[in-house]
Amino acid sequence: MIEINNINDLINEIYRTGSIYNDICYKLIQHNYNDIDTLLSILCIDIYNRKEKMMEIYNKGEFKYFFIRMVINQTKSVSSQFYKATKLLVDTTNFTPLQYDDDSEIQHNFLILDDYELELEQREELITAMSEARNLVLTDWFSSEMFKMYYDENMTYREIGKYAGVDYNTVYYYVSKNLESIKRLPKIKHLINMYIYNKDKV
Length: 202
Fold this sequence. Notes:
- It contains twelve helices and no strands.
- It is mostly helical.
- The protein has two domains: 80 residues, no CATH class; 94 residues, no CATH class.
């Protein structure tokens, strides 16, 4: 996992093959690599020009959702820079940029644990600690209910969206925002540093 300390790190991560941001663009525009590069260039220039605001959004844990909105706005509007450069409009109606199989969605999204080689005890300790800590950050009723449906009732994003009357990306935003808040709590941050980044060893 790349550590993001400044706007240049963030832009490099967006361009990096295999990053979540790069993957979003490739899933949306599958037919032409030149168009993908054009979209990435437009997005990164915009992000750099607003670097202070973008880093503020990133540090709040809200950048993924913001990036998705930027991508959709560029690819569905005839007044966007992307359309002016490519004459291409993309149907984003059913776009689900972070879609996983329903059976693996919960485990994969909780801490992206599949990306790390963790001992079973370490994995269980992280999940237990994060579950207990969520009451410290889940203060909004609506987002709390979606979070509970996702982690307690094992519902998928689509099931929650249908139940709550909102779209997939809205559910993803609230669940991810709460998860990022939990990960910033001192105890959770310590465990992540110790088990994943090999820091704060005791």
